[in-house]
Amino acid sequence: MLIQLPSGSPEPQGPQNADQEATFEAGLRRDLASAPIVSYDTMLGGPAKRAIDITIALITTPIWVPLLLVAAGVSKLRDRAPVFLRDERIGYGGRSFNCYSLRMSPTVKADAAEGAIANDAAEKVASRRIRWRNAFERLPQMLNVIRGDMAIVGPSPLSRAQLEPMKSARRYYLSARPGVVGISTIIGGSGDPSQHKIYAMSWAITTDALIFWDGVRALWDGREELWKPSFTQAKPGQSTSGIVVRRRS
User: Fold this and answer.
1) d(CA 201, CA 44)
2) Where is region (Disordered) located (predicted)?
3) What confidence tens digit (pLDDT) does each residue in 91-139 have?
4) Local structure of 241: helix, strand or coil
């Protein structure tokens, strides 16, 4: 470490000054080590990923805007409480933003919970309804995509309290914009912090395409995912994106 002394300051001499310099340097190192963020990686995907997100958000506007308005109207008719919600979330580089969501009617949630415990057929129907409800709740986040706060595919947006205990995985989360379509269903689980590192180190446009397609298909298919990408380092020549796609039997 190089310590620049002020102009005109005498050169440190003797063991006492050396001890003082060592103490000062040790304290400075502790301060830097305890800082929440010293630096973070370049934004994952860069301009290419951002251009794809904007293109998808604008092209699909005639689809998700009417769906959002219909869902908001139905929810408002069932309950007079505010329809649109916003919560503080942490995005790329530690920047906070208002994450929008649609408040679905509690009646829908109760009906889905009752159907889930009735029988196997009702459980499949309820599972599909829950997935659709979650999709409708996230529709307002397309506005966050257009604003540049979020991406189509990426880590689920976390609050400041959720981000604090992540430790070393934090830098990988902060290197990407949070996504409307989360990665937790494909990589690990929602409570597994290693998912952010795996996604960041294995990212490719094809990776996002696989995750997006799986999320869309899950809305229509009552079964669980038929396949999941295996985010392990591929052998040379086996995969251009660093992942291996395995089909589940």
Assistant:
1) 9
2) 1-21
3) 999 999 999 999 876 544 444 444 444 456 666 777 778 888 888 999 9
4) coil
